[in-house]
Amino acid sequence: MKIGNLILSGRVILAPLAGIADSPFRLLARRFGAALVHTEMISAEGLSRGGAGSLRLLDFKPEERPIGVQIFGSDPERMASACKLAGETGPDLIDINCGCPVRKVVRKNGGAALLKDLKLLEKILLAVRRSSQVPVTLKIRSGCDQGSLVAVEVAKLAQECGFGAIAVHPRTREDGFSRKADWNIIAEVKGTVDIPVVGSGDVFSPEDAKNMLDRTSCDAVMIGRGSFGNPWIFSRSNTLLDQGQLLAEPSLEKRIDVCLQHVELSAQTYGESTGVKKMRKHMVWYTKGMARCKELRLKLSTLDTLDQVRQAFSDYLAQFERKQGTI
Known about the structure:
11 strands, 14% strand, TIM Barrel, Non-ribosomal Peptide Synthetase Peptidyl Carrier Protein, Chain A, 15 helices, alpha/beta, 45% helix
């Protein structure tokens, strides 16, 4: 898939995920074959004012490339300024968020709230396009509610404003994640515009990725929640799409090994104590579905050091082996 002058090596992409897709998470996603990753969502207001927290979210390592920086906001000038600043850090593209349903974002007229004011959205898209030296993309929901589905109209607008691609999550702001994603909307957008269309929503397995591509003819699939504690979804999806082979889920030992790699990356990035604490929710995701893991999951949510985490998993494996006779 080609976005402006950027050529992606695959069709499975990591979604921008606020509070989740930090540098360690992105590194793992790339190692497992994600064709493109994104930063966490960054406030244009905070970035244009030089806020330390916003500037920190721009940090990425060369191994994470290709990477997109995602920005949200509602003021055209601020958005243009933020995109220019973000572009100076050298990302491969800049993505504009027009899909976040979170109240604190929508309340400031950002994210999915922009779908109710397409005149303002057009001003933002044009301002961003003029200020960016790298390709720009747009991520949207299907509308603010079921009575105002505007995905096709917004996709046409993005194309007219010179955007390189559009990602469509076919739920409304009002839906949150409560309604099944309507992939027909992705297909409708794909049939309307010439720029690449990325499908998003309810992709939790390689089969889901293939089904979305087959049913909608979209150019790529964006995975968000389906990657939580499951970075191998990218490699397994790539193998199914490229070779027609569905690889088995990783073994228990492999799952734990990858989780430990993730914890170690987090500790290297943030320092041991902070890095391990940031990983607590991820460790809960990695251990979901493991046999007799209730005690382990409770313990992991309280740990502060790498040695404690390693020991907790070692103890779990030893107990599992004794009870099962094999790992």
